[in-house]
């Protein structure tokens, strides 16, 4: 077997989509002739923790960990977040920042470039140089964000001339979180120079969406699209006993820019128009929810339709997808929303539950829904379309005793195993 060094800040028991991507690559790469060696962080500031993911770590795999002086711990102290605050608390916030918080964000945005993990770069380079002198590998895969990991791989590529693939799960310079960091023009120019140097030096770049492919294609030697996908082993069977409620379910952290007032208005109208809707329908939000979203729901007076579940392990979240009567998939409202393609969509597809997609009708996510032969994306203001979709599904659920399920298999083109094969073929191309 050839050996591939995977550099990833997030690794089980940390949870989230970033963990899933590299974890599944490591799981399936041996089928294609590659033995993974993982380098990761011992004490990451993770979005969530999920011990259930540990079962997917290949038995006997080499995993190397080093510690980071985590800036988020300092941020919590400075801003009074409290020692138990989570990264997701910052992600879903929608309140105005205090002067201290604004100052902290300026420091984070302008002194930590490209991101808050930049302090991990030099220690990691030293550690991995020592390791590689005694334990050579055939190829390197760095997966960001945080995009600091690409600077680690870049230094190793320069030192050892090892073929290198830079994997992008999100944009670098144009990543959504940078808009809150009070960055100066000088910082943005510096960051853009770092991004460009990585794109030009890497033997190949992999991206998760057509939008990122277009953004990087003029600066990278080679860009290959490798969607996030889903692992068939993670998709459970539907429970034999359907829920007593028709559930419109969203799994994951519901952020401030995912508020869809037209949807809450639609649910209010359906409650008034359909018999038993109040008693039999539930909007089920699984994870943290931004305060402005809750306020928007309360404004329509439909909080009685709402149920919450705290963040759950990935395995439980996927079971909820399978059991849901209808899955809610709102694209964040943002100037780059046409390019957004979250990993969640692929597990939604594999669950075979019907999906209510709300967002740009000509965006990347809308195209994936169409390729998977699902209901098309609805615009944020298309209240009539939302009403028809929910009403139709609810009435079918009432009459049949369970929700409609999609019976096609077009989603199988997005399996993690097949997509890992695309990555392995790329390795084969760039290894001399």
What is the number of domains? 2
Query: Rough shape?
Result: globular
Report the C-alpha radius of gyration, rounded. Answer: 22 Å
Beginning-to-end CA distance, first to last residue: 15 Å
How much beta, percentage-wise? 5-15%
Secondary structure elements and pairings:
Layout: E1 2-8, H1 17-28, E2 34-41, E3 62-66, H2 71-79, H3 87-91, H4 99-111, H5 121-134, E4 139-144, H6 148-160, E5 164-168, H7 185-201, E6 204-207, H8 210-216, E7 223-225, E8 246-251, H9 261-273, H10 277-280, E9 281-286, H11 291-299, E10 306-309, H12 314-323, E11 326-330, H13 344-351, E12 355-358, H14 364-371, H15 383-400, H16 416-430
Parallel strand pairs: 1-2, 1-4, 2-3, 4-5, 5-6, 6-7, 8-9, 8-11, 9-10, 11-12
Helix pairs in contact: 1-16, 2-4, 5-6, 9-15
Q: Could you walk me through the main structural features you see in this protein, from its secondary elements to its overall organization?
A:
This protein has 432 residues and is α/β, with parallel strands linked by helices. It folds into 2 domains: 2-229 and 415-430, Rossmann fold (3-Layer(aba) Sandwich), CATH 3.40.50; 233-411, Glycogen Phosphorylase B (Rossmann fold), CATH 3.40.50.2000. It has helices at residues 17-28, 71-79, 87-91, 99-111, 121-134, 148-160, 185-201, 210-216, 261-273, 277-280, 291-299, 314-323, 344-351, 364-371, 383-400, 416-430, and strands at 2-8, 34-41, 62-66, 139-144, 164-168, 204-207, 223-225, 246-251, 281-286, 306-309, 326-330, 355-358. The chain starts with a strand and ends with a helix. The protein is built from 16 helices and 12 strands. Helix 2 packs antiparallel against helix 4, helix 5 (121-134) packs parallel to helix 6 and helix 9 packs across helix 15. The chain has a 7-stranded parallel beta sheet with strand order 3-2-1-4-5-6-7, with helices on both faces. A 5-stranded parallel beta sheet has the order 10-9-8-11-12, with helices on both faces.
């Amino acid at each position: 077997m050839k050996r591939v060094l995977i550099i990833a800040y997030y690794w089980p028991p940390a949870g989230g989509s970033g963990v899933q991507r590299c974890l599944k690559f490591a799981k399936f790469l041996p089928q294609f002739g590659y033995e993974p060696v993982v380098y990761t962080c011992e004490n990451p500031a993770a979005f969530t923790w999920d011990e259930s993911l540990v079962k997917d770590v290949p038995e006997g795999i080499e995993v190397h960990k080093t510690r980071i002086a985590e800036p988020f711990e300092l941020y919590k102290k400075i801003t009074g977040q409290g020692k138990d605050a989570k990264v997701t608390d910052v992600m879903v916030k929608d309140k105005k920042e205090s002067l201290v918080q604004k100052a902290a964000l300026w420091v984070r945005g302008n002194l930590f470039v490209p991101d808050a993990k930049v302090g991990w770069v030099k220690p990691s380079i030293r550690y991995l140089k020592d390791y590689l002198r005694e334990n050579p590998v055939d190829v390197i895969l760095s997966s960001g964000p945080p995009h600091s990991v690409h600077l680690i791989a870049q230094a190793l590529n320069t030192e050892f001339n090892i073929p290198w693939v830079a994997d992008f799960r999100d944009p670098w310079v144009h990543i959504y979180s940078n808009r809150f960091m009070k960055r100066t023009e000088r910082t943005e120019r510096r960051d853009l120079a770092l991004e460009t140097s990585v794109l030009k030096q890497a033997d190949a770049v992999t991206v998760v969406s057509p939008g990122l492919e277009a953004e990087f294609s003029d600066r990278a030697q080679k860009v290959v699209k490798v969607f996030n996908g889903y692992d068939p082993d993670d998709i459970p069977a539907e429970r034999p006993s359907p829920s007593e409620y028709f559930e419109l379910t969203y799994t994951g952290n519901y952020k401030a820019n995912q508020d869809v007032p037209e949807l809450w208005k639609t649910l209010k109208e359906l409650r008034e128009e359909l018999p038993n809707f109040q008693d039999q329908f539930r909007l089920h939000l699984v994870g943290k929810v931004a305060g402005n979203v809750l306020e928007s729901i309360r404004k329509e007076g439909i909080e009685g339709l709402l149920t919450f579940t705290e963040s759950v392990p990935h395995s439980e979240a996927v079971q909820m997808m399978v059991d849901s009567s209808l899955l809610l998939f709102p694209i964040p409202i943002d100037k780059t929303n046409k390019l957004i393609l979250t990993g969640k969509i692929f597990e939604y597809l594999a669950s075979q539950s019907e999906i209510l997609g709300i967002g740009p009708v000509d965006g990347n996510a809308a195209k994936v829904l169409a390729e998977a032969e699902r209901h098309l994306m609805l615009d944020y203001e298309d209240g009539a379309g939302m009403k028809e979709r929910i009403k139709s599904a609810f009435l079918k659920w009432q009459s049949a005793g369970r929700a409609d399920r999609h019976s096609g298999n077009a989603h199988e083109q997005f399996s993690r195993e097949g997509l890992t094969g695309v990555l392995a073929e790329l390795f084969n191309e760039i290894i001399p």
